[in-house]
């Protein structure tokens, strides 16, 4: 008997949009209903898998690894929450094709708020920054497009993602 396919919740957006914080809230909520849930965060994954650089081709290579890993886990019945920039149509198409249950979420934040959150100084001193030096390919048909400028929006967004995820 084959296990039921897990769910992939792919949370994407530019650096500083709150992907990790939101994914942690979603992960916690999903674990209550689906204990077989994992959170794969882009920054953590880069540490585990080794730095691949930030050129456009390096970013695509890294995104392919995340997408393939997530698909392998969902095929084993695991629910996977991924928080990553990975703004490439190729990756979004791969996820939709290779995950029986898929929720794609795009986070948006006002430019002023992104600059305020600029802890890593990416937007002021960074090189090869997606959205400045590299053109992002925002998802064509995300399940949700969420504004994430405030703490209140963060909690609301987590509830929206959880509600949609429970229907999948």
Q: Strand-and-helix sequence, N→C?
A: EHEHHEHEHHEH
Q: What's the number of domains? A: 1
CATH topology tier name = Rossmann fold
How confident is the prediction overall: mean pLDDT? 88
Rg, please?
15 Å
Number of helices: 7
What does this structure look like?
- This protein is α/β, with parallel strands linked by helices and 168 residues long.
- The model has no long low-confidence stretch (mean pLDDT 88).
- Helix 1 (19-33) packs across helix 7 (151-167) and helix 3 packs parallel to helix 4 (89-98).
- It has helices at 19-33, 42-49, 56-74, 89-98, 111-116, 122-125, 151-167; strands at 7-12, 37-41, 79-84, 101-108, 144-147.
- Helices cover 47% and strands 17% of the residues.
- It has a single domain (7-167), classed as P-loop containing nucleotide triphosphate hydrolases (Rossmann fold).
- A five-stranded parallel sheet has the order 2-3-1-4-5, sandwiched between helices.
